[in-house]
Amino acid sequence: MQIEMSQPILAHNDRQATANRERLAAHHVYLLDLMASPGAGKTSTILATIERLAKRFNVAVIEGDIASDVDAQKVKAAGVPAVQINTGGACHLESAMIARALDALDLQALDLIIVENVGNLVCPTEFDLGENAKVMILSVPEGDDKALKYPAIFEISRAVVLNKVDTMPVFNFDEQAFLSSVAALNPQAPVFALSATSGQGVDAWCEWLAKQMQSVVG
Q: String of b and e for 71-105 (b: at least 16 CB within 10 Å)?
């Protein structure tokens, strides 16, 4: 006899995700789940996003890491509330973890919560957090073949951020091949080519995000 454990776990997670989504909707808060591999530039993208949107929206961040609070401290230093979740070894965040993090935030004072998921291209795809959108970040040094190797994360993403484009001349990255791969998997997802550290392309990404938020925040 084989007992399939994933379905009960995911069913429980989905019930809590629905509760999270309803709670956030009641407060008109948009929840963005950012997924990427370690080193892709999630935190730098978050900080660049905050810099451009902070005058228009009240933003908070939920930081997911296996250990440490290094990234949460960077966000707090930028003057933005941050809640740290340490998974203790788990390769993804779950909706129950997000529910506890929401308890620590003043939802009435917020418009946007950005979740920095644990660095992983596989596990976070399976778990609904109650987000309004999942967005995938890939950095140029990781290679142009990642959409072929990890299709699921690209398929579920509302948009894709291609980060560190200023390093394109240094790496053998075929941008057209990457864009074609993404389009084949998810033709509705826009791809935003940017450099979070230099600021190149960040405005277009932030304008897209602000537009997505309109139906929730108003």
A: bbebbeeeebbbbbbbeeeeebbbbbbbbebbeeb
